[in-house]
Amino acid sequence: MLKIENLQVAYGGIQALRGISLEVPDGKIVTLIGANGAGKSTTLRTISGLVKASGGSITYDGTELLGMPINRILEAGIAQVPEGRRVFANLTVLENLKAGAYLRRDKDGIQKDVEWVYELFPRLQERSWQLAGTLSGGEQQMLAVGRGLMSRPKVLMMDEPSLGLAPLVVQGIFDIIREINRQGVTILLIEQNANMALKTADLAYVLETGTITMQGTGAQLLADESVKEAYLGKKRK
User: Fold this and answer.
1) Which of 118, 131, 184, 220 lies 20 to 30 A from 124 at CA?
2) What is the pLDDT along the chain (237 residues), one digit of tens a residue?
């Protein structure tokens, strides 16, 4: 289990996270929803080791992650698919995937995982030698997810996977998130599309200005009137 306790992060005097606590149980899909600037991305970046915490604890299976080098966090089984996809535009699809396995030395295992990603995303196999920068937005998102999977993570953190994508493509991305989870990968998801995120998630947290204000199952938050009004575009009667 990934466990965050009283996590605090400050940027130049601004308190981005104000002592949040949450749990990501093994095998579950957990989502964080909230407005822009609430601290969602900061949470993921702190777990990944990209941002330093000013207090609190992040443990995975009882091992403290705070202060651990980024490569060690990845080796521990925690990978992130960044917001905005961030594919390597001048590398091919296949080269991007192999870049996701840069800490691994098991060539046979890497090849098997390339084939696994191609099973999840047949379109990537069709475009394996195409430069990533020439792919559509949806294809680049598939590639970003596939690259994240190439480290064989136990926990895959996803930052706004549906951002800027057409509704039909968004549905496909969420179908893949569920399938990845069914195949044993725990998911921690940040998503502006709160409706899709809550329908997909086992557990959900609402983050507002660095503080967790609500938590429950995805279904519970989806049915909550205050969540509907704030994040699902439905006004109270």
Assistant:
1) 184
2) 999 999 999 988 889 999 999 999 999 999 999 988 899 999 999 999 999 999 999 999 999 999 999 999 999 999 999 876 789 999 999 999 999 998 888 999 999 999 999 999 999 999 999 999 999 988 999 999 999 999 999 999 999 888 888 888 888 889 999 999 999 999 999 988 899 999 999 999 999 999 999 999 999 999 999 999 988 876 544
Shared domain for 96 and 143, answered yes or no, is yes
Distance CA 151, CA 164 (A): 26
133 and 175, same domain (yes or no): no
Place of tokens 């900061």: 42
Range of the domain at 117: 86-152
CATH code of the domain in which 210 resides = 3.40.50.300
158 shares a domain with 73: yes
The one-letter amino acid code at 28 reads K
216 and 166 in a common domain: yes
